[in-house]
Amino acid sequence: MTRALKIIPQRSIYSYIHKRRMSSTPSLPKFVVWAPDYTDEGALGRRLAVRPAHLENINKQISQGVLRVAGAFMTPESVDAAAADRKFRGSCMIYEGESIDAVRQLVEEDHYYKTDVWDKEKIVILPIALVTGLPPVPS
């Protein structure tokens, strides 16, 4: 059985989002960060060397509610690979912050940024209007 999708006029969506925001606790804007890794021979080694410090910082930001979602992009063949054989291509995160500049500062303080894991010239930070909810902030 095929289900038809109901098309909602754009004005109705904005109205729904606006009403939802007004009736819930105010929150900060969300920003998605795409941070591709450098592709040189030593990039993976640098990533793995600072990973524990990177994860410690990430977990702190998650517990503070600043970083809401985070993960690493991998190559398609890495899906079924053993953990030691996975090939990483970059990181993707969703932050809550006052501004793009505030989020950029957090990114630039990250160990992956400071140790040349992420390609600084290719990092993208954009505001995102989420349609789905985010996981709750750990308490």
From TrEMBL:
It comes from the Eukaryota. Residues 38-123 form the YCII-related domain. It holds the Pfam family YCII. This is YCII-related domain-containing protein. It comes from Suillus plorans.
